[in-house]
């Protein structure tokens, strides 16, 4: 049996974007691997926001950590993402956590580490829409539009360069321009930072309170 106990505070802003380990961290993470069964367990202690270290100088937006308590910088292009319980972080808006198929031909599981990549030339549209104009087909797949000349020998997965996956109808919210924007889409990967409007509004209030505290400190 292998037991790992990690005390996590926040993701280090700037630098290599790795985990910043601190003895005062609010989260105790237990990754337990039992023999060949590969059983894993994640344990989150009750949230104590006073022990959270707010991320600073993030190159993009901020997201909640895996236990939904402390904020961290969203992962940027070419940075690692996903992994067991999402320990490698979540990609910023406009990026996807891409997991390549294993070289040995095994199926993709939820534990692989991916890389944040842009979906160049793709725009978001409502699902199940299709338009054709001047021989160019816009095929909507996994919540994104594929814009370009279509090769009849390609299927949608080959066109995107991704392996097929099981789509789910997902509802959630993101903080965009200081507001909680919520939607329901069918997709393979959850693009939402918050599972509901309530959690989004709560996070937004914490951000506003933090900004107000920083303003007071600057004026003092």
Automatic annotation (TrEMBL):
Domain of life, source organism: Eukaryota
GO biological process: regulation of cell growth; regulation of signal transduction
Gene Ontology molecular-function annotations: insulin-like growth factor binding
Signal peptide: 1-41
Keyword Secreted: yes
Keywords of this entry: Disulfide bond, Secreted, Signal
Ranges for domain IGFBP N-terminal: 40-119
Entry GO CC: extracellular region
Pfam family, one: IGFBP
Name of protein: IGFBP N-terminal domain-containing protein
Annotated organism of origin: Amazona aestiva (Blue-fronted Amazon parrot)
Keyword Secreted: yes
Broad class of where this protein is predominantly found: secreted
PANTHER family: CYSTEINE-RICH MOTOR NEURON 1 PROTEIN-LIKE, INSULIN-LIKE GROWTH FACTOR BINDING PROTEIN-RELATED
Compartments where found: Secreted
């Amino acid at each position: 049996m292998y037991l790992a106990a990690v005390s996590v505070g926040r993701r280090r802003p700037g630098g290599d974007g790795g985990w910043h380990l601190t003895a005062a961290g609010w989260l105790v993470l237990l990754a337990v691997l039992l023999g060949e069964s590969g059983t894993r367990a994640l344990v989150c202690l009750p949230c104590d926001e006073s022990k959270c270290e707010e991320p600073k100088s993030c190159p993009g937006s901020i997201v909640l950590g895996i236990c939904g308590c402390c904020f961290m910088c969203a992962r940027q292009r070419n940075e690692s993402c996903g992994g067991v319980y999402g320990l490698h972080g979540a990609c910023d808006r406009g990026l996807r956590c891409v997991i390549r198929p294993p070289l040995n031909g095994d199926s993709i599981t939820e534990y692989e580490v991916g890389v944040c990549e842009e979906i160049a030339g793709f725009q978001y549209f409502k699902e199940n829409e299709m338009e054709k104009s001047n021989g160019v087909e816009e095929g909507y797949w996994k919540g994104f539009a594929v814009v370009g000349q279509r090769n009849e020998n390609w299927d949608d997965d080959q066109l995107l360069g991704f392996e097929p996956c099981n789509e789910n109808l997902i509802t959630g919210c993101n903080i965009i321009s200081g507001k909680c924007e919520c939607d329901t889409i069918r997709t393979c990967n959850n693009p939402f930072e918050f599972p509901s409007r309530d959690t989004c509004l709560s996070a937004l209030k914490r951000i506003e309170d933090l900004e107000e505290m920083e303003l007071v400190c600057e004026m003092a």
